[in-house]
Structures are given as structure tokens and as C-alpha cells.
Amino acid sequence: xxxxAGVEVSTDFIAPTGFEITTIPAGNYLSLDxxxxxxxxxxxxxxxxxxxxxxxxxxxxxxxxxxxxxxxxDPMSDSYVMGIAIPIK
Length: 89
Known about the structure:
- The chain has 89 residues and is α+β, with helices and mostly antiparallel strands.
- Helices cover 18% and strands 21% of the residues.
């Protein structure tokens, strides 16, 4: 597992020392939402990879698996929404 935390920046952004610029390759994703506190994330991952992805009949492709956050929301809130994105062909 190679975990990277990142933030979307403009193409002319200069990363501070110690940080690196990484480009996420173009491609399609199956996007699912986790709703609720981030502390309750595990069941959403089980649903995404164990139920939703297999039942969609799609094929996974090489690429990063993404978690998409909105920094303006409270991740401990019961109404928090976070995206889970699975790379697909």
C-alpha cells in the first residue's frame, strides 16, 4: 500500500521544499459516497469494494484509488460526505 495525501493545485503551482507534484493519470472512476463521520468509514469501503463494484460488472484498471474530501466540511459530522473513487476501464 502506497498512501499519498494530496491537494489539487494549479498547473503553475510550485511545491514547497519537501513536497512533490504528482499528476493523477486521466481515466474513468466508479464513484461512491460515504455519508457520516469519517470514524464510520470502514463499512462504506466494504460496501464499495465488496458489493457496489462487483455488482457494477466493471473491470478495475491500474491507477490510484482515491478518497475525495471537502476541506470545508466537518469529517466528524454525521452529515459529512466523502467520495470513494475506484479506477475502472
